[in-house]
Structure formats: C-alpha cells, structure tokens
Prior knowledge:
Helix content: 25-40%
Structural class: alpha/beta
Shape: elongated
Bound molecules: adenosine-5'-diphosphate, magnesium ion, zinc ion
Largest sheet: 8 strands, parallel
Number of strands: 19
Mean pLDDT: 79
Amino acid sequence: EPYIPKYLEVKYTEGSNDKKWSSRDFPWTKKLEADNKKVFGNPSFRPNQREVINATMSGCDVFVLMPTGGGKSLTYQLPALICPGITLVISPLVSLIQDQIMHLLQVNIPAAYLSSNMEWTEQQEILRELNSDVCKYKFLYVTPEKVAKSDVLLRHLESLHTRESLARIVIDEAHCVSQWGHDFRPDYQGLGILKQKFPTVPVLALTATATMSVKEDVVQALGLANCIIFRQSFNRPNLRYSVIPKTKKCLEDIDNFIKKFHFDQCGIIYCLSRMDCERVAEKLQEYGHKAAFYHGSMEGAQRANIQKQWSKDEINIICATVAFGMGINKPDVRFVIHHSLPKSIEGYHQECGRAGRDGLPSSCVLYYSYSDYIRVKHMISQGTVDQNSFGSGYGRSNVATSGRILETNVENLLRMAWIVLKCLRSLLCNLIHFGEKFESTNCRKTCDNCSKIQKCIEKDVTEVAKQLVELVKMTGQKFSSAHVLEVYRGSLSQYVKKHRHESLRLHGAGKHLAKGEASRVLRHLVTEDILVEDVKKSDLYGSVSSVLKVNESKAYNLFSGAQTMRLRLPSSVTQSKLGKFEATPAKVSLTSGKQSPPRTDPSAAPQSPVDTNL
Length: 614
Ligand code: ADP
Ligand code: MG
Ligand code: ZN
C-alpha cells in the first residue's frame, strides 16, 4: 500500500473562475449593495468581495486568500448584518479584536468579545446575553484558546445553534492553523472541533498568506470538506522592492533614504531583536526623526499608546519586531524597511504588505547581510525568534523544539536567502501563493534586482567548493568563514602567520578567483549544509560569532563526485583568469535539486546578485 498523505484527499473548488458567484441576482443582492454603501460607506465592492459574500451566504464553506488590506473583514461583516443570528469570529490577538470591535461600534453594530484575560464577571455578562432570547450582539469575537479550552463557551455555542442563532463561523488569519506558516498558533489546531459540532454552520476562513502546504493544512485541520477557494493576485504593483547590502553605515543609509524619498512620511522599520528596535529608534531620533520603538516585551498600555500616537501621526517611524503589524490599518505607510533579514519569505511579504495600502507608490527596502542570515538561523534553532514576535500566550516554545517546525523555519529562511538573487516580485508571488505565476519579465524593472540587471553566467564551482571544505578541515574547524577566506586568498596577516596557515597547501589557492567569488561559494556551501556555521552569541547586543565546521555526510557527495556545484555569478565576478565558464540562460541552480527551485521564465533576462560581504 503506498502511503498517501491525508491532504491529497481534501477536495475543494476554485471559486474565482465561477461566474455564478459574481451574479447580482441573489435574493440578498439589493440589501447587500445598500448596506455596503449605507452602513460601511463603501462606494463599491473590491475584487472578490461580492463573490465571497455570495458563496458564504449560499451556505458553502469558503477559504479566502486576499492580500492584507484587500478587505476581508467586509466579507463576513456584511453577511452578519443581513443574516439573522450571531457570527462567531476567531481572531488571534486581542488587539486585533479590539480594533475590529471599535470599528463595528462606530457604525452602530453591536459586537462583543471574550478572552481569557478578561474579568470573569465581565465574561459572565456576555455569556448571559448570548443566552437571552433576543441577543443584541451580531458578533462574538473570541481568541482561539477560548474555543480550545472553554467548555462553557462551547456549551453556549451549542445552545445558540439549537436556537438556530449561530449564523456563521469566521476564522480570521487562518494561516495560524498551520505549522508551515509563519505565525503558527497551537490553539488554532483545536478549531476543527467547530465543524464537528456544527456541521451545518458555514465556515469562512480568511488569510493573506498561504502557500500550497499551508492551505492544505488549514482546510484539513478545520475539516472544510468541499470548500470553495477564492484567491487573487498578490502582486502589489505600487510597491517598489529593493535589497541593499548591509554595512556598518546602515543607519546612516536609512536616515539618508528617508530624508531623500520619504521625509516626514510614515514608515515601519522591522528589526530582529528588542535591543535592535531600541537602538535604531534612538539613532533615528538623534537624526531628527519622529521615531519610537515597539516590541513584545513592552507593557500592553505602552504599546497601545505608541500605536495611538502612530495612527495620529504624532510618531512617523516605528522601529518594531514583527509584534507590530498584524491588523495595522494605516493606509499611508510609505515605507517598510527591514533592518535585518526577515525569518521567512511569507513574513517578509506580509510585512511589506503593510506599505502602500492606499495604492500610492511606496518603498520596501531590505538590508541584507550574511551575518544576519546566520543570526536568524541561530535564533530559529534556539527557538527564540517567536518570543520576540508576540506577547505572552502566543509563544511557540512548547513546539519550537519539534523537528518539523525547526526544519520548516530553516527552510523558509533559506528561501529568504534567495531574495538577493532573483526578481523579487516573481519570487514573492511564485513562492508564496500556491501557484500564482508571476513572470519576472512582467516586473519591468520595478524591483531592484531586475533594475540592476547585469549579465549573469553559470559556472561550475565544484573544485573551489572542494578546496574550501578541505581548507576548513586543515585549519581544524575552529575559524570563522571570514578567516578561512583570507587564508584561501593567500593573506599574510599576522593572524594567519600566527596560526602557521601560510604553510598550508591551500594557502592562496583561491588567489586567481575574482573578488567575491570564493565568498559566494562558501556561502553556498553553508546554505547547502555542507559547511555548518556553529554560532555563538558573543555579546549582550545579540551579535554572534561563528566557527565553520564540516558536515561530513553532506561533504561526502561532493568529494565522491555525486554532487557538482554550479552557481550563477554576475559576469564581473566570473572574469577570473582560470575559471572555465559558459553562458547559460537564467536558471536557478542555487539548490542542488533537493528543493524545487522557484519557477521563472527561462527566457527572462538573468539578474545580478547583490554583492554582500561576509
Ligand atoms: P484585510 O482584513 O483584508 O487586511 P480589512 O478588512 O481590514 O482588510 O480592510 C482594509 C481596509 O479597506 C479597511 O479600511 C476597509 O474599510 C477598507 N475597505 C474594505 N472594503 C472596501 C470597499 N469595498 N471599498 C472601500 N474600502 C474598503
Ligand atoms: Mg483582516
Ligand atoms: Zn523584478
């Protein structure tokens, strides 16, 4: 019996191509259009909103994949107004819930929420109201742990259901169900109980990020057999992406960039650690910007205060960990800067997605350094990434050690490393949104990597790779990559002499190579796991030092001839005197076949990698 993964059995229908759902002849169409204008003040519907509403109001289970800011809330808020009964909304963060409820109350729609950290008497009062014959609420928002852990709530929902008053179940930020996603919340996995208990109540799952595997996971975990899927393009034409090598002058660069292109405008700077947030904010204040920091270990009130000042434009720039952002609804964010490498490409896309929601041109700048890559990798392996991300209650420490998650996170990060090499737009679209194909030729140089096109050449670097691995062994597997490279290039520094490296057979073996070539190969060896960076925190500020080690089992393939290594290098790099090379069309060979590379149009012009120093 061949093993068939369970998710292959899940059936679903593509809703986006079915004309039925865009019909204006549903019994509720008139009321729908009227309420959209009258209650919510929207002149019309945005892409897929009408379709999703029609499908969920027809009683189908629906999975919606719509970019951040696309207007997902309306797709359950309007049906809730039109249908009798109450709509249950599961949302991951209390701050998100409060934001939603505030908006609903502003337009006079009664809504309530339950969360574990509310006073018990307050919870009782809401539950009592749910039990009354004419419940005044149209919405009940809950955090997922409420569903998983509160029998009281389930009993009340059952009672609502028997009175035919449970109109719809909405799972907001549904990607949190999946361990493959970037925001996994264990409590989301318990939500399958809802479909089991209330099989006739339509479920609406909403998310802005879902890879193929995330979507399968969500559909599976929630028990959405035969659901209809709506999705739309995730390309954001008004965002301009760039990747810039990070140097010691990074903060000066950021200051210049903001003053030159976005002076006095609103922006977010994502940092890796709390300490980074505070340092970056302080520096920007010195440069005269209205900046503040925001991270998970701040008091709730303090965070709320910063958010408020930001929405009122009293603060322009927020230096934050990823804790800042979910549900941020500011339309005029003109720039999102990543001061460090994000931990996954999904996360990167979502964070960038907070820029330019009003459709006006906005910038997304990523500062990339190899040492940040190593730093994030270290944080992932230590399970410390997510403690920075969310306040108490949402840490994933209980699962951080599970192999699958660790692997997924590292793999996600690896894909992040590709970001310096390819059309950023196609990379984001193709990798994230199950099957949306965005050809890099359509980018028309609106991303940095495309606009800096240089001729790229594919080259066999197997020999260089072997020499580097050998050199790591010769020097005793106790030096940093920078040092190994120095020896390879034939440096005669005091340090090299002191360790008697200059007498080694491979000292200077890489002399003939073009600048940057050896370091690229070395970095590739690390991303391929043939060399391993043994990382240690070296100071309070989170800077790390690392020592290269050889992963013998992987290195074996290289030396036995089972694996060759080819890299695309910009032609300036391949101008080496001895290297044999041939020109080939752009083809990703960064991975040696074990991961499927992102699809690209092979006829597209090759792109140049950004040169980043070790
Ligand atoms: P999402 O949850 O998809 O990120 P939201 O539901 O929070 O997005 O909506 C983002 C913004 O778009 C909100 O300010 C909302 O009022 C606005 N919006 C939603 N639908 C429409 C529409 N049809 N026309 C105009 N504005 C809309
Ligand atoms: Mg939303
Ligand atoms: Zn591009």
